[in-house]
Each structure stands twice: as structure tokens, then as C-alpha cells.
């Protein structure tokens, strides 16, 4: 009687162990990284031109792949973990230049090796313009005839350059490519500014994962309201992970304008 019950008890024990192991693996796969900002602290006062080192740290059960810095809701830069390892914290320094006066929100997001993204961590900083340096005016002599300099006023009808992202034409988010596969990413944009994009305007890589793409892709001189499709050829990296690259329009003088867009692909584990 006792012996006849032992196989049943053993089966139940083994089944319990299997279910527990499966649940643990599932929980790890479903987990997302945790990230926090170490510096600057909330409410930090900065002066225009300051070079700021945003220090962020993240950890994840599977390993942290990269940490992104966003400023006022727009992607700014990325730091990649050179050696992702499970449950090993990764601390990154992400440089930012405080070049615009006013209040700014700095946000960091961490990605693990499977592409899961953390909840964002943010802090608010205040950037003020530097105080002007007083320059003494030269003393006027009676024989000097001083003519006032006319004040410059903004010209009406001045060109406003802008670009509205409309759609991903190819390669939807999280498309899988085997390592080394070449692919064409196509974005659709519209000139929603007030004047044509000048000769020399380009679509520029601004950060993230470049994936073998060129730094810039020339675009045509598009009139206001006109729609254009931009193609960038890339290659899937060799290491299995999720990769994201960010792009934006750039004027001939290097100034960025318009909506940012990105491409995000997955290189699966063989």
C-alpha cells in the first residue's frame, strides 16, 4: 500500500518543481530594467553653455544593454553597456550641453538585452542665461557726430524650416532580421514649414544604433506641403539584441529641425 503511493507522490513533487522553474523563467523574461538618475539632482540650477554629465544607473535580471538620455521628450544620446551581465548594475555618463535657457526635463530609459524598456526616470533642471558683461561706452567729444544705429527687427515672412513625420513605410518596429542582413528603412515626411528645404538639406543619424548606415542621406529641395520618402540602407548587427537608431532632418549649416524618427529592429538568438 505504501509502495503503491510513492510514484504518485514523486510525480507530484517533480511537477511542482517544473511549474516553479517555468514561472521563474517567465517572470525573468517579462521583467523590465530599473533605472535612476544619480546626478544632476532635481532642481539643479545651470547656466547656458554648461556641460552637464547626466549620471544614470540601471540593473536588470537579464542584463542592461543600453541607457538612453531624452531631453524635453526628445532623444538626445545613448550609452551602450560593453559587457551586459545578469543582475549586474550598469552606470553610464551621458553628456548634455545646457544651450537653451528655461526649464528642462532630463529623462533616462534603460533597455535590457531582450529589448524590454524600463519605466522612465526624470529630473527637472533650470538653465539661466549668463549675466551680460558691462562694457563702458567711450566718452563722446563735442565735435563727434554720433549717429544712432537702427534696431534690427524680425522680418515678416521669414523662412521657418520644419518636417513632420508621417509614417514608417518599411520595417515596422521590432522587425526581426538575422545577423548580417541588409535592409532598407523608409520613412515618409512632409515639409510643413513655410519655405522649401534648401539645397544641401540631409536626413542625419543623431544617435542610438547606427547599424552600418551613413551619417547623412541627402534629400531633395522639397516645397512646403510636399511629401517625400527617405530610404536609408542598414545592416543588422551580429550580436542578438534589440537595436534602435534615431534620425532627424538637418540644414546645410548643421542645424537639426523637424520631427525625430527612429528604426528599431530585433536580431534574434539563433
Characteristic terms for this protein:
270 residues, Immunoglobulin-like, 2 domains, 5-stranded mixed β-sheet, flat, disordered N terminus
Sequence-ordered SSE layout with sheet pairings:
Layout: H1 2-30, E1 34-39, E2 45-47, E3 50-59, E4 64-71, E5 74-80, E6 90-98, E7 102-112, E8 121-128, E9 164-168, E10 175-176, E11 182-190, E12 202-208, E13 216-218, E14 227-235, E15 241-250, E16 256-267
Parallel strand pairs: 2-8, 10-16
Antiparallel strand pairs: 1-3, 3-6, 4-5, 4-7, 7-8, 9-11, 11-14, 12-13, 12-15, 15-16
| Binned strand content | 35-45%
Q: Share of helix among residues?
A: 10-25%
Number of strands: 16
Mean pLDDT, all residues: 84
CATH superfamily of the largest domain: Immunoglobulins
> Rough shape?
flat
Uncertain runs: 1-5, 19-26, 140-154
Number of helices: 1
How would you describe what is shown here?
The structure is a single chain. The chain folds into 2 domains: 34-128, Immunoglobulins (Immunoglobulin-like), CATH 2.60.40; 164-267, Sandwich (Immunoglobulin-like). The protein is built from 1 helix and 16 strands. It has one helix at residues 2-30; strands spanning 34-39, 45-47, 50-59, 64-71, 74-80, 90-98, 102-112, 121-128, 164-168, 175-176, 182-190, 202-208, 216-218, 227-235, 241-250, 256-267. It has a 5-stranded mixed beta sheet, with no helix packed on it. Strands 10-16-15-12-13 form a 5-stranded mixed beta sheet, with no helix packed on it. A hairpin with a 2-residue loop joins β4 (64-71) and β5 (74-80). The relative contact order is 0.14.
Amino acid at each position: 500500500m505504501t509502495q503503491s503511493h510513492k510514484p504518485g507522490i514523486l510525480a507530484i513533487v517533480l511537477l511542482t518543481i517544473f511549474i516553479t522553474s517555468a514561472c521563474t523563467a517567465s517572470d525573468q523574461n517579462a521583467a523590465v530594467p530599473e533605472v535612476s538618475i544619480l546626478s544632476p539632482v532635481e532642481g539643479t540650477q545651470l547656466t547656458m553653455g554648461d556641460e552637464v554629465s547626466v549620471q544614470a544607473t540601471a540593473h536588470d535580471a537579464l542584463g542592461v544593454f543600453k541607457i538612453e538620455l531624452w531631453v524635453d521628450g526628445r532623444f538626445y544620446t545613448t550609452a551602450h553597456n560593453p559587457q551586459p551581465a545578469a543582475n549586474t548594475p550598469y552606470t553610464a555618463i551621458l553628456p548634455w550641453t545646457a544651450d537653451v535657457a528655461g526649464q528642462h526635463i532630463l529623462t533616462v530609459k534603460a533597455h535590457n538585452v531582450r529589448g524590454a524598456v524600463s519605466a522612465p526616470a526624470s529630473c527637472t533642471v533650470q538653465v539661466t542665461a549668463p549675466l551680460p558683461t558691462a562694457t563702458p561706452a567711450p566718452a563722446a567729444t563735442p565735435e563727434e557726430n554720433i549717429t544712432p544705429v537702427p534696431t534690427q527687427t524680425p522680418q515678416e515672412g521669414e523662412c521657418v524650416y520644419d518636417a513632420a513625420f508621417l509614417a514608417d513605410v518599411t520595417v515596422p518596429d521590432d522587425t526581426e532580421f538575422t545577423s548580417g542582413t541588409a535592409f532598407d528603412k523608409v520613412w515618409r515626411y512632409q515639409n510643413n514649414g513655410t519655405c522649401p528645404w534648401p539645397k544641401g538639406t540631409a536626413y542625419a543619424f543623431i544617435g542610438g544604433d547606427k547599424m552600418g548606415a551613413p551619417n547623412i542621406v541627402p534629400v531633395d529641395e522639397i516645397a512646403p506641403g510636399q511629401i517625400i520618402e527617405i530610404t536609408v540602407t542598414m545592416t543588422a548587427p551580429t550580436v542578438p539584441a534589440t537595436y534602435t537608431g534615431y534620425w532627424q532632418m538637418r540644414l546645410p549649416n548643421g542645424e537639426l529641425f523637424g520631427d525625430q524618427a527612429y528604426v528599431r529592429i530585433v536580431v534574434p538568438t539563433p
